[in-house]
Design a protein that fits this description.
single chain, alpha/beta, Rossmann fold, UDP-N-acetylmuramoyl-L-alanine:D-glutamate ligase, eleven-stranded mixed β-sheet, seven-stranded parallel β-sheet, 40% helix, elongated, binds ligand NAX, binds adenosine-5'-diphosphate, binds potassium ion, NAD
């Protein structure tokens, strides 16, 4: 699914009106009816007190139209207008007039803090104050209103956007933003919904297809692409009947050190579980027996160093390299790592300490083969790129780094974002049970296995991240979030690939 920006969506609205030859009033009627139906489906006419807060732009217009449908269906509705400006949009005014035809209880105008009504825990609040037209942080008495809405314990439904949240640009950390329980968002979820500092405001969210012009949407370059089950299906490469293991590559996993040989076990076994024709683990010699007994399918090569890497003397021509999990960052390891990446010309996967070594030795970055995939969690990312002040800035830093060095960055998190140049791919699988030691090691094995199987590195990263998350989702159905362990996630990679084609609609809110 394409994620369009606020500006692109406003443009799409205009094009849609022209192409479909409808008035903006008609589009708003369509939109409000779609939202009303969703709310009505869930409430089933329940006599719960509903307070609808409307701004003076088109988001407020949506709120007024939804309010009108609710009143006509007998709901207990009270409408408030945040009367913050004389510049009311035309559609707001149309729907302001229309609501007066269905009730004598006209909307209450709010002008200052004292006008803010009491909001009870048992109320439902519909937030239609600002949508994609927000152009500055909410301040003054309206910030007090947002605070009271958030503190009310009411169930909060935001229309299109939680009011106060920017769709796709950074905002001050202390902005007044509605903390929605649920958001009905139009055409596509907004980029901010997926970032840890701003995504919390959207709550669970649901996309409403409001019928924007498909040609405009198809021809517009999105700010990011959401990778759902359907998108992952399209990347998958089925095997051919007469293929043999030589067709599916040979992954060399250079990982582990004394006390962290498990990282090599997890990464190498994930590579074999994901279908690499052959996998060899290159480990310090203390890891040999551990590897050979825990994963018999994986071959081993041992380094001269017994507890950590001291050199690198593998001929890499026939391998795809995955390097970094648990290797440490001592001087000898740095030289071994530097030798490995210098020797390799095909794209590699670099994880964990491999990334830490690059951060501490920036001059090595030029030796990393083009289109290699780096898989940092936020701690590793900060060491590589420096501090950021917002989730949006984190993305900008990542895009700049990726473009400058021609490398792919996999920014791991609840919604892992793969960055390639200025393109971003947001993952829609996975769960909080995956916040467990070693699950990143598994991911590096999954992605390098796909590269060995001749997936383009970017697609290997995007598909690998999706399958890894989907494996976590399937595993959580048996083990619960708490019982998930990295090795279990790895064992569910195969079932997750099967599930891809059983579950066309799998999408996570
Ligand atoms: N035909 C259309 O344009 C459609 C619009 N739709 C709705 O329209 C919304 C966008 O409407 P608008 O573009 O009118 O924008 P909004 O309704 O989000 O608000 C814009 C108005 O608020 C003012 N404003 C912005 N930030 C402010 C702040 N911090 N404090 C005080 N005032 C502020 C702006 O100057 C402008 O007057 C969408 O989110 C969606 O809900 C939908 O009905 C779909 C169709
Ligand atoms: N809350 C979450 N929701 C979804 N996925 C998560 C969540 N927390 C962590 N993950 C995933 O788990 C993995 C953790 O990787 P990482 O932090 O490198 O673990 P480790 O270093 O222990 O191997 C990443 O793929 C990340 O996207
Ligand atoms: K809103």
């Amino acid at each position: 699914m394409k994620l369009l920006t606020a500006q692109q969506l406003a443009e799409a609205d205009k094009v849609t009106l022209l192409k479909q030859n409808i008035s903006s009033e008609e589009l708003m009627e369509r939109v409000s009816m779609l939202v009303f139906n969703k709310i009505h489906e869930r409430l089933g006419g329940a006599p719960v007190p509903i307070k609808i807060f409307c701004g003076i732009g088109n988001n407020g217009g949506d709120g007024l139209a939804i309010a009108r449908h609710m009143i006509q269906h007998g709901y207990q509705v009270k409408v408030y207008i945040t009367n913050c400006s004389k510049h009311r949009s035309e559609d707001f005014l149309t729907h302001y007039d229309k609501i007066k035809n269905v009730t004598k209880d006209w909307p209450t105008l709010l002008d200052c803090k004292d006008d803010i009504p009491v909001i009870n825990g048992g109320d439902i609040v519909i937030d239609a104050i600002f949508g994609i037209g927000l152009n500055r942080p909410i301040d003054g008495w309206m910030a007090d209103l947002i605070k009271q809405i958030n503190e009310s314990k009411a169930f909060i439904v935001s229309i299109d956007m939680p009011s106060g949240l920017y769709a796709d640009t950074a905002q001050p950390a202390d902005s007044a933003v509605v903390r929605a329980s649920h958001t009905f968002t139009f055409n596509n979820p907004k980029l901010s919904f997926f970032l840890p500092d701003t995504g919390v405001f959207a709550g669970s969210f649901e996309v409403i297809d409001i019928g924007l012009d498909p040609e405009f949407v198809n021809n517009t370059e999105p700010i990011a692409t959401l990778i759902t089950n359907q998108a992952a299906q399209a990347i998958y490469k089925p095997r051919t009947k007469f293929s043999h293991k030589g067709d599916y590559g040979h992954t060399l996993v250079m990982a582990g050190s004394k006390g962290k040989i498990g990282a090599a076990v997890l990464s190498a076994s994930a590579a074999i579980n994901t279908g690499s024709g052959k996998v060899t683990a290159y480990v310090p010699s203390c890891g040999n027996n551990i590897l050979q007994t825990s994963v018999p399918e994986v071959m081993t090569l041992t380094d001269a160093g017994s507890e950590h890497f001291e050199g690198f003397d593998v001929e890499l021509d026939n391998y795809n390299l995955c390097v970094g999990p648990g290797i440490g960052t001592g001087d000898a390891v740095v030289s071994a790592f530097a030798k490995a990446i210098k020797q390799q010309s095909a794209p590699v996967v670099i994880d964990a300490d491999g990334i830490n070594i690059l951060s501490a030795n920036k001059k090595l970055i030029k030796d990393v083969p083009e289109s290699s995939v780096l898989t940092p969690h936020d701690g590793e990312l900060e060491r590589l790129l420096g501090k950021w002040s917002s989730g949006m800035e984190r993305l900008e830093l990542a895009k700049t780094f990726s473009s400058k060095h021609n490398l792919i960055l996999v920014l791991k998190g609840a919604h892992t974002i793969t960055v390639s140049g200025t393109n971003m791919y947001i993952n829609d699988s996975g769960n909080a049970g995956m916040a467990t030691a070693g699950s990143g090691d598994v991911l590096s094995g999954v992605i390098s296995s796909l590269i060995s199987q001749k997936y383009e590195p970017l697609m290997a990263a995007v598909f690998g991240v999706y399958i890894h998350g989907a494996a976590g989702d399937l595993a959580a159905q048996t083990y619960a979030h708490e019982g998930l362990k990295a090795g279990i996630i790895s064992n569910f990679v195969g079932p997750a690939i099967l599930q891809l084609f059983r579950n066309d609609t799998a999408q996570r809110a």
